[in-house]
């Protein structure tokens, strides 16, 4: 099945196909984040193991342990698919939200997204409970992606801080 939608596709709405495309897009984003988080977590774990051989000590050793340890914990937590409390959000939805971005989709509650997608996709989303369930899956998956993305970014910052300590310890030997 082709993932691209034509310009005239709004004239003959196929809500199921469109919702599945949207859900698969969000799932691909989640899988990509899982792969990047796994790589970062493995790298940080190897560096933590190497600190034992570098005889961690002093301020550089503490910086390395704190940064890399925090990155490792955040990386492990990022694998848990917790989506957050339903209806809780930090940012308010705006008319300029992109419905291809998991971060923007996660701003909406289930009902809000149904109403917005009804207009955005040209109708048919509220035709059956099945379509509404697909929207629910999209919202839940988008929240998981947003949470994983936030944890990945925090783990990257912690890993960079740990890198400075690790390199400092390596140089001072």
Any overview of this molecule?
The protein has 173 residues and is an all-alpha fold. It has one domain (13-172). 68% of the residues lie in helices and 0% in strands. The radius of gyration is 21 Å and the shape is elongated. It starts with 14 loop residues before the first helix and ends with a helix.
Give a concise summary.
This protein is mainly α. It has helices at residues 15-53, 58-77, 102-105, 110-120, 129-172. Helix 1 (15-53) runs parallel beside helix 5.
Percent helix range: 55-70%
Major beta sheet summary: none
Number of strands: 0
Tally of individual domains: 1
Strand content: under 5%
Mean pLDDT: 79
Question: How many H/I helices?
Answer: 5
| Secondary-structure element series | HHHHH
- Decide which structural class fits the backbone: mainly alpha
Q: Roughly how many Å is the radius of gyration?
A: 21 Å
Q: What's the SSE blueprint?
A:
Layout (H helix, E strand, L loop, with lengths): L14 H39 L4 H20 L24 H4 L4 H11 L8 H44 L1
Helix pairs in contact: 1-2, 1-5, 2-5
């Amino acid at each position: 099945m082709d993932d691209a939608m034509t310009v005239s596709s709004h004239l003959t709405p196929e809500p199921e196909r469109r919702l599945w495309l949207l859900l698969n897009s969000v799932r691909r984003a989640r899988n990509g984040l899982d792969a990047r988080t796994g790589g970062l977590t493995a790298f940080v774990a190897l560096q933590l193991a190497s600190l034992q051989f570098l005889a961690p000590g002093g301020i550089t050793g503490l910086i390395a342990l704190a940064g890399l340890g925090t990155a490792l914990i955040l990386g492990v937590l990022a694998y848990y698919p917790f989506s957050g409390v339903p209806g809780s959000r930090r940012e308010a939805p705006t008319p300029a939200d992109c419905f291809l971005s998991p971060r923007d989709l996660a701003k909406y509650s289930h009902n809000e997204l149904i109403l917005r997608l009804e207009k955005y996709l040209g109708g048919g989303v509220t035709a059956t409970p099945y379509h509404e369930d697909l929207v629910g899956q999209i919202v839940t998956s988008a929240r998981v992606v947003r949470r994983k993305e936030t944890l990945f970014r925090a783990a990257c910052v912690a890993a960079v801080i740990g890198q400075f300590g690790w390199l400092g310890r390596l140089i001072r030997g």
